[in-house]
Amino acid sequence: xxxxxxxxxxxxxEVSFTADNEKTETIVDRQEIKRVIINLLGNAIAYTMDGxxxxxxxxxxxxxxxxxxxDTGIGISEDMMKNLFKKYSKxxxxxxxxxxxxxxxxxxxIVDAHGGKIWVESKENQGSSFYxxxxxxxxxxx
Length: 142
Known about the structure:
With 142 residues, the chain is an alpha+beta fold. It has one domain: Heat Shock Protein 90, CATH 3.30.565. It has helices spanning 5-10, 30-47, 78-81, 103-113, and strands at 14-19, 53-61, 64-71, 117-123, 127-135. A five-stranded mixed β-sheet has the order 1-2-3-5-4. Helix 2 runs antiparallel to helix 4. The chain is globular and about 40 Å long.
């Protein structure tokens, strides 16, 4: 997250992190999952106005580890949501001047490759919550 610290500080965004479990385990390619989190956080920063709030949550539910990146940004219309995870799709082309439109597509590819799922809940002018889940290591024998 330090990679993006200067960006959210510049916009005076409040960023918080909460984990419901001190030690949640899953088997992942750390670099690739870090890429997913940085992409989701980067998007939240880009689409949240100055002084807004971004929250990152990690919870373990049943046999899944679920990561949620929630923002108080501009939100996404239902029309745009259906194409978000497709190649070269961008949420709001007028607000964000940079980007290839590949971030969410690649994030979906990475999460899918780990046996997980990625999705979004959003309302225009009310912010967005991006989620991804990964299989948790439960009942593991030592």
